[in-house]
Amino acid sequence: TPAIYRLQGLRTMPRRGLVWAKLSQNIASESGREDYVPARLEDTSDGLMATPVFGKSNLIYTLVNADGLIKVPLNKGGLLAGESVEVRLF
After folding, report:
1. What CATH homologous superfamily does 15-89 map to?
2. pTM of this prediction?
């Protein structure tokens, strides 16, 4: 409920599901493979911004510091900064 979120110090209710955000930096990916990259979300004056959290895939650190996963589509050789990206929220 909104009251509980305010008691936790949150200004807005947590997001759930799927959101679109602007990518803050390039993400390299191999074409022909669908990738999911952990990302942190930030509300900015330009809208929602997704910043990749890079690290080795076996490190829990990358997931702990992320709000969700950026989807890199199957036949795309990476994503460019400024692109609108799909983020699956935790």
Report:
1. MoeA, C-terminal, domain IV (2.40.340.10)
2. 0.74
